[in-house]
Write a structure and sequence with these properties.
single chain, 7-stranded mixed beta sheet, 10 helices, globular, about 270 residues, alpha/beta, two-stranded antiparallel sheet, 9 strands
């Protein structure tokens, strides 16, 4: 079984321009994500999954510099980009992480890899971790199926298109009590997020890769850091889009199952 780690990354952010290139105590945000990715077990390859837009060319150079692969795909259709990348590299499963999350949990990512190898679910997510610290596990056959049946083109927020227990075998890991902080923001969407992230990384040796456990201990002992981005909230799909997606699945269930059966036919 070939499991790849796909880092989705673009430089188009309007809320925090060129955020992935911003320095955090010696490394850019995207380089911290790459460094963490190299700590995972049983990963076939790491791929920086960006777009064909020339604006994203600096990310290609960073991938080369850090000795990982890169892939250029759709600008707005993130799911299609992931799917095309996974097929190009011949992965059976992928772990997906976004390039703005330099404190994703290495330990929980490894737990997910073990789960993929044993249970072979179609989509696996983690409940309860701080925002920006979880990875997602996806069966490439499920990814291919989604890309064949979906109507949505802009899939930056793609969870509702594949987290469908009525279609796929969905698995869930639940964060342990110490880690269960679903409202804590450890991502880089806004300048306040970056300010908080900078305070965190400057509290550790510049050459270290702090664990999520160490970061949470730091925040527990220095609670004033939490005030930095407390006014910011996580973006989500609007109610109209969510309703439209749910209606699509309701009215196209039989068609979707046929597409899935075709893509999974060699499993029978």
């Amino acid at each position: 079984m070939k499991i790849g780690l796909l880092i989705t990354a673009r430089l188009k952010s309007s809320r925090l321009p060129f955020k992935l290139l911003r320095d955090l105590n010696g490394y850019s945000i995207i380089e911290h994500v790459i460094n963490r990715s190299k700590k995972l077990s049983d990963i076939e390859d790491i791929v920086l999954c960006t777009s064909i837009n020339q604006q994203d060319k600096p990310l290609v150079e960073i991938a080369k510099k850090n000795d990982i692969y890169y892939f250029l795909g759709s600008e707005d259709d993130v799911l299609q980009r992931l799917c095309d990348c996974a097929k190009f590299f011949g992965f059976d499963y992928v772990l997906s992480i976004t390039g703005e999350n330099p404190i994703f949990s290495i330990d929980h990512a490894n737990l997910m890899i073990n789960r993929i190898k044993t249970l072979k679910e179609d989509f696996i997510y983690i409940e309860g971790l701080p925002i920006g610290t979880a990875v997602y596990g996806i069966n490439v056959k499920a990814l291919k199926t989604v890309c064949e049946y979906k109507d949505e083109i802009d899939t930056e927020i793609w969870g509702p298109l594949i987290n469908r227990p009525e279609i796929f075998k969905v698995g869930k890991l639940v964060a342990e009590d110490f880690y269960y902080r679903p409202n804590l923001r450890l991502t880089n969407d806004y300048f306040e997020d970056f300010q908080m992230m900078n305070k965190i990384f400057c509290s550790f040796n510049s050459r270290s890769t702090p664990s999520l456990f160490s970061v949470l201990e730091l925040l527990d002992n220095n609670r004033e850091i939490l005030d930095t981005n407390k006014e910011r909230t996580q973006l989500s799909l609007d109610d109209d889009t969510t309703k439209r997606i749910d209606e699509f699945f309701k009215h196209n269930h039989h068609k979707i199952i046929k597409i899935k059966n075709k893509n999974y036919s060699d499993d029978i």
